[in-house]
Amino acid sequence: MNSPRTTLYRDKQNAKLMGVCSGIADYTGIDVLWVRLALIILIFATGFALPAYFVAGLLLSKKPAHLYVDHDETRYWQRVRQNPKRTAREIRARMKDVDRRLADVETFYVSSNPRLTAEIERLR
């Protein structure tokens, strides 16, 4: 089962009609103007896009009101949906950086405090 943050929803808060285009824009991170323009072009080019829009409007669930805490969380989940492996690599890199910085702090405090050094060695 998909996480609520990785599911495509209709975005009624930013909707013009049914919220399908704004939902696609929210899901992909593409500006809603470009999604709407693409839909208009597809409607005139194929004619298939209009029925597909209404079917999507009927089948998609409405986006929960408080799905994301802030804009940064929204951007994070858009990146996850676009490329989950890249996002995992970014998180691992950040965690390695935090680990390295903590090791630097530990080294600083341990090297300047002989009692702490002895206690850490005793615990190992």
Per-chain topology:
Layout: H1 20-28, H2 32-46, H3 49-59, H4 71-82, H5 84-111, H6 114-123
Total strand segments = 0
Beta-strand level of the residues, as a percent range?
under 5%
Assign the structural class, choosing from mainly alpha, mainly beta, alpha/beta, alpha+beta, or little secondary structure: mainly alpha
Termini Cα gap: 43 Å
Helix content: 55-70%
User: What is the N-to-C order of secondary-structure elements (H for helix, E for strand)?
Assistant: HHHHHH
Gross morphology: rod-shaped
Q: Please state the CA-atom Rg, rounded to the nearest Å.
A: 24 Å
Number of helices: 6
Name the poorly predicted regions.
Answer: none
> Mind summarizing the main beta sheet?
none
Mean pLDDT level: 80
What are the salient characteristics of this protein?
124 residues; rod-shaped; mainly alpha
Task: Outline the structure in words.
By secondary structure, this protein is mostly helical. It has helices spanning 20-28, 32-46, 49-59, 71-82, 84-111, 114-123. Helix 1 crosses helix 2 (32-46) and helix 4 (71-82) packs across helix 5 (84-111). The radius of gyration is 24 Å and the shape is rod-shaped. The two termini are 43 Å apart. The mean pLDDT is 80.
